[in-house]
Write a structure and sequence with these properties.
alpha/beta; Phenazine biosynthesis protein PhzF family; isomerase activity; 7-stranded mixed beta sheet; Phenazine_PhzF-like; Diaminopimelate Epimerase, Chain A, domain 1; 7 strands; about 110 residues; isomerase
Amino acid sequence: MGVTIYQVDAFTDKPYKGNPAAVCLLEEIRDDEWLQAVANENNLSETAFLIPENDGYKLRWFTPKNEVKLCGHATLASAHILYTEKLLPLNRQARFFTLSGLLTASYQEDTG
């Protein structure tokens, strides 16, 4: 089974700046051992895993060593991928179901 993984630099519009996170889009839930192995191989501070769920996405974050309950930059990176890859319309709120509860993000045009 193929897996799509993106690397996003959050908090910047310049390559190789900001705070990097991996975003992994999944079609179905995978076991924790597999998620941990992917995060370890990515070797970034966080890897975000997105699984479609109800009216949003289940979102989990893993460091190379363990799962964490909250990660802001990987959440923003996840929303960025959903909007830029046209997986979510720009006028629709991104909804993430996480260990820390419901998190949301909205698209805004860059006003420079």
